[in-house]
Amino acid sequence: MARFRFFLLWLSLILWFSAVAPAQDKKPDDDEVVRIDTQLVDIPVEITDKSGKPILNLKQSNFVVYEDGKRQELADFSATNAPFEVALLLDTSGSARSELPLITRAAENFINSLRVGDRVSIISFRSDRVDNKTVAASEVLMPLTDDRTKLKNILAKVSVSNGTPYYDGLAQVVKKVFSEKPKDQFRGRRALVALTDGVDSTSVGGFEEVREQFNQAGIVSYFIQVDTREFFEENLLGDCQSAMRFSAAQIRRYYRTFYPKSKIEKVSGFCQLGDFERLDISKNLYELANMEMQLMAKTSGGKVFPVADLSEARTAFSKVAQEIGTKYSLGYYSSNEKRDGTFRKIKIELKGVPVGSTVRAREGYTAPTN
Questions:
Q1: Burial label, 106 (beta-carbon count in 10 A; 0-12, 13-18, 19+)
Q2: Residue 173 and which of 25, 50, 88, 326 are 20 to 30 A apart at CA?
Q3: Which domains are assigned to the chain?
Q4: What is the rounded CA–CA span in Å between residue 295 and residue 304?
Q5: pLDDT tens by residue, 254-264
């Protein structure tokens, strides 16, 4: 009887191992693997009192974040003393040619006014010879660094261009300067600072594409908007050979944007345009540039600083540096896990701050897609 019981026990163990072993050895199919891919939504935030003065020393508990009306749990918070990464875009085309020293001195003062630990990259324009033609190109002169000496030395190499690849320069900010995910201390603390009139003439890419890239990356955008319209239009009229002219790309953008369905004859060459048409194109292209800058600044939580000429750029740069130094950064993982590519609105509510305080932050983001 004892031997029989031992035999039954031994048989039961064999059957049990036979059932369990295949389950342990079996590898799950790819379809059975659950992958969790979460995206931290970063929000640079500026808080000011009713007089417009920045409010400092706030804590995470002072902020409540909503996405499409639903409260979100904050997973990350950086105070105003945390460092920033800045892509500095210098437009050195058109009227800037004779004022290059003003641009580089203003840029150097801006860099020097940033805080210890802030990192800066410099992007500018240049002229190349391609197939015996002079073409303008954007160029990252210096990747992100906190070495002030290197940055100063590279500013001495900034050159001028015979065109304005402005949109392409913005694209370089996302694709090259901020191509890698930020380290923890810079998460939600990346900014574009652009000195430009915003009127593109030679880019391969377009504004909407760039704007979406900036929106996805959560980059706060500041523009020092130089008013070059009067200078441009003074040299726009008269003999078409000696006049300052539009590029073919600008003429196409004018018709495509402002007269997309018109049956009027559309010309492609500058010399085919009369003075009235030249002024109308100029007016509309400058208004379009202003609208685009205002849109990028507003949706990202940044700001546009208009200046009459480059002599005022130094003061504007100082204001931008002050803004950067008073930014908070919030981060959360969305409770909406759908990867549907929809735009989601962000709203920030303040607690325990003076009455009349205002918030400036990015207005939303586009959810990823599968």
A1: buried
A2: 326
A3: 40-79+328-366 (no CATH), 85-325 (3.40.50.410)
A4: 10
A5: 888 888 887 77
